[in-house]
Design brief:
Elements: H1 2-22, H2 26-29, E1 35-39, E2 42-46, E3 51-52, H3 60-66, E4 71-78, E5 81-89, H4 95-99, E6 105-108, E7 111-118, E8 121-128, E9 131-137, H5 143-146
Antiparallel strand pairs: 1-2, 3-4, 4-5, 5-9, 6-7, 7-8, 8-9
Amino acid sequence: MNKKILTVFVLLIVVASISAVSAFEFADIFGGGDETVTIKGIDFNIPAGYKEDSTNTFNIIEQFIDEGYDFDGKVYVKDNTEVGLYVYNYSSLDADDILGDFSNETTINNVGGFMEFDDNDYVFVYSKDKCVVLIASNDKDAISDFIIA
């Protein structure tokens, strides 16, 4: 009789353990998957493996804040790839005036914008929800991983 009770008890523990494990995705168990970060109301996908580098802002943020712009951003790093995510609220200006300096029109993840190459970095810039969004990276292919349409 004690063996049957012990067997049932062990089976209940196994079933409870399997239920608890199945409530999580494998990415959660083994170190995390993609996550979403919001900057000034704009959502970005942060792919697994990228970590925020709060010491590196491509020196862009300080320049814009010093000039009084409503601007914020973050930089993420994985191995040798750096990706800067910057959002500028243009409620007092016209987006066309801001985007008029860019010429290479392109679409990434169904988001229309402009792609430029400057100082060893690719820059994709677009307008969304009264904000100008700028994604800069030393790896052109990484940019699409961060865009949420």
